[in-house]
Design goal:
The complex is a heterodimer of chains A (741) and B (94). Chain A has 741 residues and is of the alpha/beta class. Chain A has 31 helices and ten strands. Chain A is elongated, with a radius of gyration of 30 Å. Helix content of chain B is 14%, strand content 31%. Chain B has two helices and five strands; from the N terminus they run E-H-E-E-E-H-E. Chain B has a five-stranded antiparallel β-sheet with strand order 4-3-2-1-5. In chain B, a hairpin with a 6-residue loop joins strand 2 and strand 3. Chain B is globular and about 25 Å long. The chains are: A alpha/beta (741), B alpha+beta (94). Chains A and B meet through helix 4, helix 11, helix 12, helix 16 and strand 10 of A and helix 1 and strand 4 of B. Strand 10 of chain A pairs antiparallel with strand 4 of chain B, so a sheet runs across the interface.
């Protein structure tokens, strides 16, 4: 606990709660053009087409929702800032995440006031997509429609000219996939910035609803006052968004009260239905005049998508394919990333050794090698897994399969309060929690992301393997139970099962207590299958990797330096013969043993060693002595460091993962003050349970800090996992002893 | 009849969307307003959620929520195009 307390305090003040980087400062500089649209309409692809360089990734004010923006030049030479607004079906909102769309288009809450809003619509889903455009038109926001995916819509698609006539807003045909129409879109943006077109379209609402809207409009706060049309549109927004259960921020109590009164007075009238139906009638009426009665009726029919889904969503084959795909993703993280990780580790170890050899011994050399170089290595080593996982996520998202994952897994994961999309992060957690936590971004709701983030680190990651291997090999004989089941293998499998069950239970408990969200109806769009765009997948991989390096990398580096200081200082008075320094004359082996014993002594006297000793009273009920305590302190850097720290504690020097025999022998020989063996199988089991549950990983905390933009959740994560680990190990050890083991 | 009781492959017309306000509002905003034609395509392996197609777009909703949507059988097999004020989804006739 004290470890992270120290680390946390040190970094709390500069990091603090982050506020909208960039969003406010852009305000005065360039005209802002927003891209809005329903999910799955190719909005992000279009953004990637337009934003060729100078892309920035920030956050929307006050929420952990990514805001991508980029500067670009229009044909006239005018420069604008284009920003991507998260996909939304409607402006009405219940959560602060959904509120972003309204705030962004109106330039509220520290968002820059947009000069133009480009609504990207799927030509094959015209009516549903124009619903959002209609809401913007009602707000009298300058709107430009990008009619996308005309190729998919075929004959049913209207011409952009006709559409622009019936809606009274400019309209351009684009194809985000091929880039067709991008130049025309930029030209249209240019024109609209010079001569802004203000839409005039009216929706015919029932008289009673208009009276209600006007009653609400009178209660709008001063900052919302505008022209009559916008005020009415805002009143309708408030009527369909505000109620006793919404999670919206910054709404005036007066407005809330007025909405509640109006809804109560409406009695049997269904206000939501009146609003939505009127809008659909308006759109259908307008589109009917296009002479394309089926416009917007989609009718992809027994299309390619349906034929694929007949297999992929089939109760039997569908599930088999699903498991197969997930196995490939998992295998890639677990095994395919390994060579690249080995290469990175090897390169940094080589650099480390080279500098140790050529620089004079001292604080600066150690800071450079054991602090900075090891720290940068600790950051970069995650890159292969992050890139691979986001390659798969990009392909799964872009192809439309990710929505099917949520569909297939909804029933199972909902039982423990997790979102169907939590499956990929949870499974990735078996390889490594760091990319897995980053993968939680595929979920829209903050509550779902947070809950997944807090339980993913309980999944048995690959860094726990060396610890289990060491302990099982040292303390459990390679015997067989029930005639054929090897004890060692059984234990290993049990640890994986144990971690999975605990993670699911933790999700069930946390989801019902601390992170209780209102139950959100699952209405999941299953978009048509499409070929993933190479560019958009690569862009996403690059953005994720970059944000990891720049935002989590610093914290991991800082933790590495801190761990080095903790385990190396204060320095012993005695001369520690450094490796590589000329050995004193005499027997080489004796000198090496001496140097290793010095290292052990140095570690014991270090802050970390003292911390391990100070922790002994707390660890004793778990069956651990102070040496294990030092190992646990060292393992905060990463769980597998436990092995090498134990090697140092026992004066064996650096221990390699594949050379465990001396360390195992030493552990078996270790005795307590009373002469009994320090390591019994029961201690081993208690230790494995501790490692399965404790948050012994600074990188996990760094990445949770990055994703939640606060130190609160990483500190909570560390606290609850450590407490859970302590209690579970206590029960294992004390229970085992009571049973006579 | 509720949407939950509709067998896969059968088309129905929405009569009333009930249930919690967030669900009702979101479903209607996605175009599933009374009068819209909906077909249940299939049910997920664990018996929940179900997959629907409405206005040419595929959605999945949970059984518990589908129970809140009242539907009626389609009277005519093929609606005359352009007549209904709120034309339902017509499976694209070849």
């Amino acid at each position: 606990m004290s470890l992270v307390g120290g680390g946390g305090e040190a970094s709390l003040s500069p990091a603090g709660p982050t506020t909208a980087p960039g969003a406010a400062s852009e305000k005065a500089l360039l005209p802002t053009v927003l891209l809005v649209g329903n999910p799955n309409v190719g909005k992000t692809s279009l953004f990637n087409r337009l934003a060729r360089r100078n892309e920035r990734v920030g956050n929307y004010p006050g929420v952990t929702v990514e805001r991508r923006s980029a500067e670009l030049s229009l044909p006239s030479g005018r420069r604008v800032l284009i920003a991507d607004v998260p996909g939304a079906y409607s402006l009405s909102a219940r959560s602060s995440e959904e509120q972003i769309a309204l705030q962004a288009v109106l330039g509220w809450a520290d968002n820059p006031l947009p000069a133009l809003v480009v609504v990207v619509v799927d030509a094959g889903q015209l009516v549903r997509n124009l619903y959002l455009a209609l809401q913007l038109i009602e707000l009298r926001v300058p709107v430009l429609i990008a009619l996308n995916m005309l190729d998919e819509a075929g004959d049913r698609a209207p011409s952009p000219v006709a559409l622009s006539q019936v809606l009274g807003v400019p309209c351009v045909a684009t194809n985000a996939r091929t880039g067709l129409g991008a130049a025309e879109l930029l030209g249209a943006i240019d024109t609209r910035l010079v001569t802004p077109a203000h839409p005039t379209l009216h929706v015919n609402y029932p008289g009673a609803l208009i009276r209600d809207a006007d009653t609400v409009a009178n209660a709008l706060p001063a900052g919302w006052k505008s022209n009559v049309e916008r005020e009415r549109a805002l009143a309708l927004w408030a009527l369909s968004s505000l109620d006793a259960e919404d999670e919206l921020a910054g709404i005036s109590p007066e407005l809330r009260q007025r909405c509640a009164q109006v809804i109560a007075a409406a009695g049997d009238r269904d206000v939501d239905r009146e609003i939505i139906e009127s809008r659909y009638q308006c759109l259908e009426g307008r589109l009917a005049t296009l002479g394309a009665p089926q416009a917007g009726q989609g009718g992809r029919g027994p299309s390619v998508t349906e034929r694929i889904d007949r297999v992929l969503l089939h109760p039997a084959y569908g599930f088999a394919v699903f498991l197969g795909i997930m196995l490939v993703v998992f295998q890639s993280l677990f095994a395919w990333a390994d060579p690249a990780m080995g290469l990175i580790e090897g390169a940094f170890a080589g650099l480390h050794a080279l500098l140790v050899e050529h620089l004079p011994a001292g604080f600066m050399r150690d800071l450079l090698t054991r602090g900075l170089i090891d720290g940068v290595g600790n950051v970069l080593v995650f890159l292969p897994q992050i890139l691979l996982l986001f390659l798969f996520i990009g392909v799964l998202e872009d192809s439309g399969y990710m929505a099917r994952v949520a569909y297939l897994m909804d029933r199972a994961l909902r039982a423990v309060g997790l979102h169907g999309r939590a499956f990929v992060p949870m499974m990735s957690g078996y390889a490594c929690a760091v990319p897995a936590i980053m993968a939680t971004r595929t979920m829209e709701r903050r509550r779902d992301r947070l809950l997944t983030m807090l339980v993913v680190p309980l999944m048995s990651c690959s860094a726990r393997l060396p610890v289990y291997t060491l302990i099982i090999g040292a303390l459990f004989p390679p015997s067989v139970v029930f005639g054929f089941v090897p004890v060692q293998g059984l234990l290993m499998v049990s640890m994986y099962l144990f971690s999975t069950i605990v993670a699911l239970l933790a999700a069930a408990v946390l989801g019902r207590t601390l992170i209780r969200g209102r139950s959100v109806p699952l209405i999941l769009e299953l978009p048509p299958y499409r070929w993933p765009g190479t560019k958009s997948v690569l862009t996403m991989m690059w953005l994720r990797a970059r944000s990891f390096l720049t935002e989590a990398g610093g914290v991991i580096l800082g933790f590495t330096v801190l761990m080095w200081l903790l385990l190396s200082y204060p320095k012993l008075e005695v001369q520690v013969s450094a490796p590589g320094a000329p050995l004193p004359a005499g027997d080489y082996v004796t000198a090496q043993v001496e140097s290793q014993q010095n290292e052990a002594l140095q570690l014991e006297r270090s802050f970390g060693g003292r911390l391990g000793k100070a922790l002994e009273p707390a660890l004793e009920p778990l069956g651990f002595d102070w040496k294990i305590g030092v190992g646990i302190v060292g393992a905060f850097a990463a769980r597998e460091v436990f092995v090498s720290t134990m090697g140092l504690v026992y004066g064996l020097g650096e221990v390699a993962d594949d050379e465990l025999t001396p360390l195992r022998d030493r552990m078996r020989a270790e005795t307590r003050a009373d002469g009994k063996p320090a390591y019994t199988p029961l201690v081993g089991l208690s230790l494995m349970v501790f490692f399965a549950l404790a948050c012994q990983c600074m990188s996990t905390l760094a990445v949770v800090k990055r994703e939640t933009r606060s130190w609160r959740w990483p500190i909570f994560l560390f606290g609850y996992m450590t407490a859970l680990a302590w209690v579970a190990s206590f029960m294992v050890y004390q229970g085992g002893q009571a049973l006579g083991f | 009849m509720t949407l939950e009781q509709v067998a896969p492959g059968v088309s129905v017309v929405i009569e009333k969307v009930g249930g919690d306000r967030p669900f009702r509002r979101r479903l209607m905003e996605l175009g599933m307003i009374p009068g819209t034609r909906v077909e249940v395509l299939r049910v997920a392996p664990f018996g929940d959620p179900l997959e629907l197609v409405a206005r040419g777009c595929n959605f999945s909703i949970r059984a518990a929520e589908a129970r809140q949507v009242e539907v009626a059988q389609v009277r005519t097999e093929r609606p005359v195009p352009g007549v209904a004020l709120v034309p339902g989804f017509a499976k694209s006739a070849p």
